[in-house]
Amino acid sequence: MRVALFVTCVNDAVFPATGIAVVKLLERLGVTVDFPAAQTCCGQPQYNTGYRRDTEPLVRRTAAAFAGYEYVVTPSGSCAAMIRDNYPRIGRLQTKEGRGGDLSRTADSLVPRTYELTEFLVDVLGVTDVGAYFPHTVTYHPSCHGVRMLGLGERPRKLLEAVKGLELRELPGAEECCGFGGTFAVKNSDVSAAMGEDKIRSAVSTGADFLCGADNSCLMHLGGMLRRQDAPVRALHLAEILASTEEEPLL
Amino acid sequence: MSGTYLGMPSFPRAARAAVQDRTLRANLRHATHTIRDKRAKAVAELGDWDQLREAGKQIKDRTLRHLDTHLLQLEQAVTAAGGTVHWAADADEANRIVTDLVRATGEREVVKVKSMATQEIGLNEALEAAGIAAYETDLAELIVQLGDDRPSHILVPAIHRNRGEIREIFTRTMSEWGRPAPDGLTDRPADLAEAARLHLRDKFLRAKVGISGANFMVAETGTLVVVESEGNGRMCLTLPETLISVVGIEKTIPTWRDLEVFLQTLPRSSTAERMNPYTSTWTGTADGDGPQTFHLVLLDNGRTGVLADEVGRQTLRCIRCSACLNVCPVYERAGGHAYGSVYPGPIGAILTPQLRGTTSEVDASLPFASTLCGACYEVCPVAIDIPEVLVHLREKVADQGGKGHRLEKAAIKAAGWVLNHPAALTAAERAAAKTRRFHPEKLGGLPLAAAWTNTRDLPVMPAEPFRDWWKRTHNS
Question: How confident is the model over B444-451, as a mean pLDDT?
């Protein structure tokens, strides 16, 4: 099984602990992981801001970096959704505009091999108990692209419920957007902050120690707000909880 | 916040005021969450919702592909049934046609059924300029009209008002428009409704001209359909001698059988009802029964332009249910007025810039008024992929340039170069890691950075980027 980690640009530069956690978790489960260094960014910020053609070189780069791997695993529902939903769309538009067909072929090859982390664990490896230990209270925010574009459904919850020592608390209004939205966070910063504040209030109301998510871009926004407000909740990526064991606990 | 880059100005500025208005936030939160939950229950009752949604989408798409044929068939059927069809290319032409038709009756006042199309073209204002008073008869539209306000929701135009505010508006202004509010009016919903009923009754019984829109136009028989809850529509459609309906061309459906789908999906999506209380249908005129003169004004006003856009045309499937507004987290915080159009919320953010273009500040900012969370697409009963159209329109705005676009474009190009050269990216990541002790938590100088750090701390940069950890631990 040749598995490549698509760590994503945000995790590479800002949240390496999440990438490290994925590697440790997968290696613990007997998977040999590779990290193709040619990868950078999936192009979602550019695409979603209206710069589709500037995204095309990144589609090519991402696909080339992961050519030949059986599975491409990423700890980001949003970046996985970018590949799965928007790469084929970018390809179709390129063809329609008479500028060649390489992007469609690229998407056709990459899309079926791309898995968000919880999909890979539950659907490919067939595990929900990954042998993790995390003796804390946790509430889970299912990010929009994971819920509505990928349809992750119960996978993250099942994984969390199987973690030894972990107490899962229901997050009120869980499926509502946190207000990050990429460049929305700065272009419409007032609305973004208002949404974030409501999400944080819900998280604090659960009494949980950790606000867990599967997308560090959302957690960067929520975590930044939690720290600004000195709130008693910490934002934490799901992978870091799953990587934590009794022998090597995260905390 | 300065408007130094794309999509920044109008919507964000208007939304900021709304976000800070605590009463408005509370009104909107309560109302949208109530309707949202009810809708979810009403939809969950149907085992075949997904098929109905798909059928609605396909009926609309098929009709739009052959819209020219269906419209001609509709015109023929309406004419055969005793009605007169007028074609209006834009708002001015539609307003001129309606004003002339009302003038020809010699009347100086009209009663109106709630209609988005007539609001879109500013018909009330055009009639007022011609000395004709137009009375809104939908309860919420009445509240908006009496309050000299603007609607902020497609289905619930006064959603931004609470009971206390409505009592105050009725007490203060009803006497200027007709029958005054009863003495000692309370803010009980039943009392408020009764005050409106008495006020409107005079107008229904007096009016000689009614003006409506329509939810559907059935091409095969020339039948118009209005779906409503209060019965005011039925009064306006049956009591006056002359009825004028202004309807967007995309409201056409080929056959009565197609109604089967939409009369299930529309009420459940909009008011969360299994069936709405009043469904009125009329075909031309009938001797001695209802209006003796019927005019249909078919409105383009930008719709054929939308139809020509392969990605954008799905917008024309919209049946104006407003389910997308009720689930939208941005609408909930920003309110309807921030969208600068009679079409607020997610559907407004894609419809308005297509109907009006993206040359004005507010219209260019609308495609950016979304986190692309996808909640709107999920509830849309005709499966309009609103996020897809939003991104498509963002591309158009970026392409056309505009205020500050050069800066953003340059930033995107620069980032694109770095991301396509991993060595440069690694160098940048290492530089950020090395200088991390000097990174502030807040950045005041740059507008873009301040927009982030006004409410959130910047993330703490790691000691080394992931790729260096990998190299250190796995490549040796």
Answer: 72
Interval B221-277: pLDDT, tens: 999 999 999 999 999 999 999 999 999 999 999 999 999 999 999 999 999 999 999
Same domain, A170 and A106: no
| H, E, C per residue of A204-236 | HHCCCCEEEECCHHHHHHHHHHHHHCCCCCEEE
Could you tell me the fold of the domain covering B42-299? Rossmann fold (3.40.50)
pLDDT digits (tens, 9 = 90+) for A173-199: 999 999 999 999 999 999 999 999 999
Task: Determine the Cα–Cα distance for residues B270 and B261; give it in Å rounded to an integer.
Answer: 14
The count of structural domains within chain A is 2
* A190/B16 CB distance under 8 A: yes
In a domain, A248, yes or no: no
- Residue B422 confidence (pLDDT): 85
Residue closest to B474 by CA, chosen among A248, A62, A23 = A23
Chain A residues with beta carbon closer than 8 angstroms to that of B471? 37
**Residue B145 corresponds to which amino acid?**
Q
- Mutate which of B466, B469, B476 to disrupt the A interface (most A C-beta within 10 Å)? B466
What is the rounded radius of gyration, in angstroms, for the C-alpha atoms of chain B? 26
Do A200 and A92 share a domain, yes or no? no
Reported as a pLDDT band with limits 50, 70 and 90, residue B8 is very low
CA dist A51 → A90, A221, B45, B309, B392 (Å): 11, 23, 42, 18, 10
Please state, in angstroms and as integers, the Cα–Cα distance from residue B157 to each residue in B112, B187, B374, following that order: 15, 18, 24
Question: How many Å apart are CA B200 and CA B232, to the nearest integer?
Answer: 9
Question: Residue A33 belongs to what H/E stretch?
Answer: strand A33-34
Task: Report the distance separating Cα B280 and Cα B287, nearest Å.
Answer: 18
Higher pLDDT, B163 or B428: B163
The minimum CA-CA distance between A119 and chain B, rounded to whole Å, is: 20
Sign of CA dihedral B377, B383, B384, B385: positive
Contact B192, B169 (CB under 8 A): no
Indicate yes or no: CB of A189 within 8 angstroms of CB of B452.
Answer: yes
Nearest alpha carbon to residue B324 among B93, B5, B35: B35
Nearest to A176 by CA among B29, B329, B35: B329
Yes or no, beta carbons of A58 and B391 under 8 Å apart:
no
Looking at the structure, tell me whether residues A116 and A147 fall in a common domain.
no
> What single-letter amino acid sits at B41?
K
**Interstrand relation of A33-34 and B252-253 (parallel, antiparallel or unpaired):** unpaired
Is pTM beyond 0.90 here? yes
* ipTM confidence score: 0.96
Phi, psi of A31 (to 5 degrees): -100, 135
Domain limits at A225? 137-243
Given A82, A102, A124, which residue is the final one in a domain? A124
Same domain, A78 and A189: no
Best of B372, B430, B475 to substitute, by most chain A Cβ atoms within 10 angstroms, is B372
* Average pLDDT score over chain B: 93
Q: Token pair for residue B117? A: 């199309």
CA dist B112 and B230 (Å) reads 13
Do A84 and A189 reside in the same domain of the chain?
Answer: no
**CB contact set of B378 (below 8 Å; sequence gap of 6+):** A148, B327
Does residue A156 share a domain with residue A103? no
Distance of alpha carbon A56 from alpha carbon B419, whole angstroms: 12
Contact A181 B371 (CB under 8 A): yes
Contacts of A179 in chain B (CB under 8 A): 329, 371
pLDDT per position as a tens digit, B176-198: 999 999 999 999 999 999 999 99
